[in-house]
Amino acid sequence: MTTEKLCRWGILGAANIARKNWDSIRHAENATLVAVASRSKLRAEEYIRECQLVAPHPQTPEACTYEELLTRKDIDAVYIPLPTGIRKEWVIKSANAGKHILCEKPCAPTVAELEEMLAACRKNKVQFMDGVMFMHSDRLPLMRRALDESGKVGPIKRIHSQFSFLAQPEFMTSNIRASSDLEPLGALGDLGWYNTRFTLWAMNYEMPTHVTGRILTAGKRPDSSDDVPLEFSAEMWFPGGVSASYYCSFVTQIQQWANISGSRGYLHIDDFVLSSFGCEAAFELTTSNLDRLGCIYNMPRRTERIASPEYSNNHPTAQETGLFRRFSRIVVTGRLEPQWETIALATQKVVNACLESARNDGKKISL
User: Kind of pairing, strands 266-269 and 251-262?
Assistant: First the structure.
């Protein structure tokens, strides 16, 4: 049994995505879930009952309203999965209440809104972090080491990724991601945030000099004020001749791969966002050569598979648990890590620049 001090969590919003993180808090040995809030206490009670049946916490979390949760003295940090369109108000209220904030992505509709949120966090000396779970996988430092070893990939020249899933028909009638009032960035915010983050991570957070974007398909549910991107592509240019692109979509079957190409080889990962089901998180390093002797042409390929022994979900080793474990450690030690807000803001700037380009017929936008 651990004697480490526990970070006491509250969940602000009974969203479906929070069910996974309900379980992640349960598996993090330095965290405990105290309360779940919804607009109505009755809804929060129902949510807690449903989750306790599947993934029971030792002590049943309490139900409360948003306002009640923020006044509680027994909560150190809040996880906020509320829709992006209404999130700013509650991030600022949480910060003003002295709560550390783990924020779902995309963080905000605009850069200006995120800057307001971050200013409130800095003023109140609370930690801010976005919920990009792959940042907390044990696979990521292995990938960094492989990229930094000059003989593996070599200097990076090109990064490309795709994150997509095929939305079911009811998605366009009821899902918040098809509403410009709730999720104005659509697929770009929900999926492209991950593509953007992976690209920035690969580039050691060097910002692109300029970007372009294209909305390939747009749509909305009946009660939405405007269309949102359902299918989006982007290009980015970095100093030193490096380029990157990505495709994100609600209209293409599930794919979540990324490729980092260099002068010596390439790194490929099939599941850069959500690890495929199993007990390992892996990636591959490949080098190929063209051997020619007279009329004989051969292309031998050498592939090295590197894996981290971690389960894909609902386990103490899963990346989602790693997210809550790391955040909880920040809270209980009191040593804030400002780089997380810097990374979130950089991601927001690139995403919004890509959208600005798309709304201006693919015009190049400088950063």
Answer: antiparallel
